[in-house]
Design a protein that fits this description.
heterodimer; A: alpha+beta; 2 domains; five-stranded mixed beta sheet; 5 helices; 26% helix; globular; B: globular
Chain lengths: 216, 171
């Protein structure tokens, strides 16, 4: 009879591929941490309500929770800044080809459930409501989007489609974002937003879609 | 978590996930469940990263979480293993390697949960008695006795489950 170690190794054969990666774990960990902070804050509020007199007497002793640790990820294609209030700012460099998996894993690492695809765009019909609360553009910096993951409805993800544009003399790129239901969406290979006239950087809100377009 | 800590955590998860899933699979016999438990253990590690990294072996933390989750799981009545008249995955005429694998899996599945966990930790993960006792939360003496009983039971079941023998469910 073979030794126990050999027998145990025998039992492992035909191992299926791993169904998760480190970015998934980091995203789940960040969500769990946020949930825990929210729960602790909720308990704190209840405690304060129950002991108002005591709380008043302790004014100056009780302190706000420490600020969330912030961080910045900078690549040649994009910069992702995590803010203390839980939001993140994504700035895409229009002159560098985006590597979608890198952006996707970095967004997830910052607690933003996201799917980033090049040359295709995924959406749900009907689209989950609330995109304008989750993603906002900046007039002063059209390459930049501010993302608030706390405003995302349950069981949704942010879908990013990244397209290189080319029509006649006009070339450029478009990054499109929308909210999708995690378990129900379809993907298309055409850019969903009609280009606005003119050249330069623009942020276009088109129904349930936010698009950052650069042409010229 | 700071960016450098996230990087470190990510590297550790990438390196340890396949290994930990194999350990969990040997303990529960189900790849999907093994994967779920590993993910849960790794999320717990994420939440305790700074403390665990500074204080103890990362592998030890993840294995302890896995072992305790799997043992606790089997204690719940609605998840408890159930006896069946026949072993569902028994191979018939496949290759010898597949036959061996299914035989070992069938025998392992019939070793009591705690004894199985001890065998996996000691003979697959090469943990010593003290470390195994710490992970399972029992004394070293219990680990030794569970090891002896588990080995005896496994050998007995393997004899019964030999392809040429009668149905291993009779063991």
């Amino acid at each position: 009879m073979p030794d126990v170690n050999t027998m145990l190794r025998t039992a492992i054969g035909e191992e299926p591929p791993l169904g998760f990666d480190a970015a998934d774990i980091v995203a789940r960990g960040q969500r769990a941490r946020r949930w825990r902070r929210t729960a602790i804050a909720g308990l704190g509020v209840a405690g304060v309500a129950a002991g108002t007199a005591l709380a008043l007497s302790l004014t100056g002793v009780l302190r706000a929770a420490p600020a969330r640790s912030t961080g910045m990820i900078q690549t040649t294609a994009f910069t992702l800044v995590e803010h203390a209030n839980g939001t993140a700012t994504l700035t895409i460099n229009p002159n560098v080809l985006l590597e979608p998996r890198t952006l996707q894993s970095d967004l997830r690492r910052d607690g933003i459930p996201a799917m980033v695809i090049t040359g295709r765009f995924c959406s749900s019909h009907p689209s989950p409501a609330g995109l304008n609360r989750v993603v906002t553009g900046q007039e002063s910096s059209p390459d930049t989007m501010t993302i608030n993951p706390a405003a995302m409805p349950p069981a949704t993800e942010l879908s990013f489609g990244y397209f290189r544009l080319s029509s006649g003399q006009v070339t450029g790129q478009e990054t499109v974002a929308t909210l999708i239901n995690t378990n129900s969406y379809t993907c298309e290979s055409t850019a969903p937003v009609v280009w606005p006239p003119g050249e330069g950087h623009r942020v276009v809100v088109h129904g349930d879609i936010v698009a950052s377009i650069t042409t010229g | 978590m700071r960016a450098d800590a996230v990087e470190e955590f990510t590297a550790y998860v990438a390196a340890c996930s396949p290994r930990m899933r194999r350990t969990a699979f040997l303990m529960c016999g189900d790849w999907q469940k093994a994967e779920d438990e590993v993910q849960t253990a790794l999320v717990k590690l994420y939440l305790s990263w700074d403390r665990v990294r500074a204080r103890q072996s990362l592998d030890s933390f993840v294995r302890t979480t896995l072992v305790r989750a799997l043992i606790d799981e089997r204690r719940r009545p609605w998840r408890r293993e159930q006896s069946r008249a026949v072993v569902p995955d028994r191979a018939t005429a496949a290759s010898m390697a597949v036959e061996d694998r299914l035989t070992v899996r069938a025998a392992l599945a019939r070793v009591p949960q705690r004894q199985r966990a001890v065998l996996v930790l000691r003979f697959y993960d090469d943990c010593d008695v003290a470390e195994t006792a710490r992970m399972i939360g029992c004394s070293e003496g219990t680990v030794k006795s569970q090891t002896a009983r588990g080995l005896a039971r496994l050998r007995e079941l393997l004899a019964i489950c030999e392809p040429s023998s009668a149905d291993c469910s009779e063991g």
